[in-house]
Design brief:
Length: 452
């Protein structure tokens, strides 16, 4: 069965399984987006890094597997990480894992959650070729000192260049089982020294995955994914959250407030990663968790996709996630019927009155007072384990919605990213019903899709 090569709009698994975005970077005139990839089945297993490239964040091409296990340290998987450019090279950092014992019935899984994690580096001169045999180095071995961090649950290096050198943040956990961040610094990307940690009290999850830190004009932002943040035993327990923080590069002191926002109020997105685009915007993508694989004719079953790239901005302490301008350029073909739209789906823009409702092929979007809500009961897998109904906090800036609908994902941008609700969906129909909506406009993807 065929693997998917090219995609427009949302990046999806080429086939089989993907999870977190990794190594997101604009490098030598192209966007590179790697991803956690299991190439053999539509389920999580020994992690590889799959690789996609794009000229514009809209037209994507899958170019194969970039990283795969070859070393003692990454024998059981190349976990998440990030990319920087240095002296013309693309430099990737990731977490290598080594299981103490594999599950004899499925060697892609670890028995008893006992494994070592180390932080590794691999360089590429062109961003396309990676020497998995000769090019890897361990830069931070598994942590031995329990007071410092967890030898198993320390992972997902995000590296950036500061004023005086390089900083790395890792997700980890304390001995008492609280999530925390570890900061390391390096003058040369080779030798790394531990500098500091940051954490919160109880109630913030037992391990913090995929931290990302960056500065924007309006403030410094931390995004991370605490595990078991919601404690109701449901599928969406692990959540990606964000907050504005106070970070000092000298000494890596991070002050984290008590308030946070969800990255996305659909609670399906996870493990986001950001990069700087060619115009200097901070752009972020995240993984849409999908409980079931999608089977389409002639194509390998696939499971996992990314949200549309979002520009992150901070205004008055609030973090906004706005659709990237290149995506807006794609959805510019006016249509009168959603049946006239292709696989890239459509954009519906409108103002919603109180009590108003949009039914997008079975997915409901409605307004209740000052909140925007969604309900996917008719277009999702059945089961107690899943949330079906979602809502934003009270919105402040009006009730303008930009709703991007495609076969397996709906994204509702409220007031240009004041809040976003994104949900995975299955079995959506090509139908649209609106009540209590004003100034509604409908667009399909440009045909042929834009190439800049
Ligand atoms: C988050 C995560 C990361 C890890 C990767 C493994 O979804 O658990 O912490 O590096 O996925 O695939």
């Amino acid at each position: 069965m065929e693997l998917r090569k090219r995609q427009i709009g949302h990046l999806k698994a080429p086939g089989n399984w993907i999870n977190d975005p990794n190594g997101f970077i604009y490098y030598k005139g192209k966007y590179h987006l790697f991803y956690q990839y299991f190439p053999y089945a539509p389920e999580w297993g020994t992690m590889h890094w799959g690789h996609a490239v794009s000229d514009d964040l809209v037209n994507w091409e899958h170019v194969g597997i970039a990283l795969f296990p070859t070393k003692y340290g990454d024998q059981n998987g190349c976990f998440s990480g990030s990319a920087v450019e240095h002296e013309g090279n693309m430099v990737l950092f990731y977490t290598g894992v080594h299981y103490f014992e594999q599950d004899p019935e499925n060697i892609h899984l670890c028995l008893h959650d006992r494994f070592d994690s180390c932080q590794m580096r691999i360089d590429s001169w062109n961003g396309m070729d990676f020497d998995n045999f000769k090019g890897k180095q361990v830069v931070i071995p598994p942590i031995e000192d329990k007071c410092h961090g967890d030898r198993t649950h320390t992972r997902d290096p995000k590296v950036w260049k500061g004023k005086n050198g390089w900083t790395m943040v890792l997700g980890s956990r304390s001995e008492e089982g609280r999530g925390k961040l570890l900061f390391y610094q390096s003058p040369d990307l080779k030798s790394w020294s531990y500098v500091n940690e940051a954490t919160k009290g109880d109630g913030w999850g037992w391990m913090w995955e995929c931290p990302d830190y960056f500065e924007t004009e309006g403030g410094q932002v931390l995004v991370f994914s605490p595990m078991r943040f919601l404690k109701d035993g449901k599928w969406e327990e692990n959540q990606a959250i964000c907050m504005t923080v106070d970070f000092k590069e000298d000494g890596c002191e991070m002050n984290m407030p008590d308030s946070y926002q969800y990255l996305d109020y659909g609670l399906d997105l996870y493990a986001p990663q950001s990069a700087v685009d060619e115009d200097g915007r901070r752009v972020l993508v995240a993984w849409l968790r999908m409980p079931e694989a999608v089977e389409e004719e002639g194509q390998a079953p696939w499971r996992g996709m990314f949200c549309l790239p979002r520009v992150v901005e901070v205004k008055n302490g609030h973090v906004y996630f706005r659709v990237h301008p290149n995506v807006k350029k794609l959805y510019k073909r006016p249509v009168t019927d959603v049946k006239d739209t292709g696989p890239e789906g459509y954009l519906l823009s409108l103002e919603l009155e109180d009590g108003g409702c949009v039914n997008a092929g079975g997915y409901q979007i409605f307004r209740r007072g000052n909140r925007i809500c969604t309900d996917r009961t008719q277009v999702f897998c059945r089961g107690e384990d899943y949330r079906m109904v979602f809502e934003t906090p009270d919105v402040k800036e009006g009730f303008h919605l930009d709703i991007y609908v495609e076969d397996h994902m709906v994204e509702v941008y409220v007031n240009d990213g004041e809040y976003v609700i994104s949900n995975g969906v299955y079995g959506l129909k090509k139908e649209l019903l609106i009540s209590g909506g004003n100034k509604a406009e409908l667009f399909g993807a440009m045909d042929p899709p834009i190439h800049r």
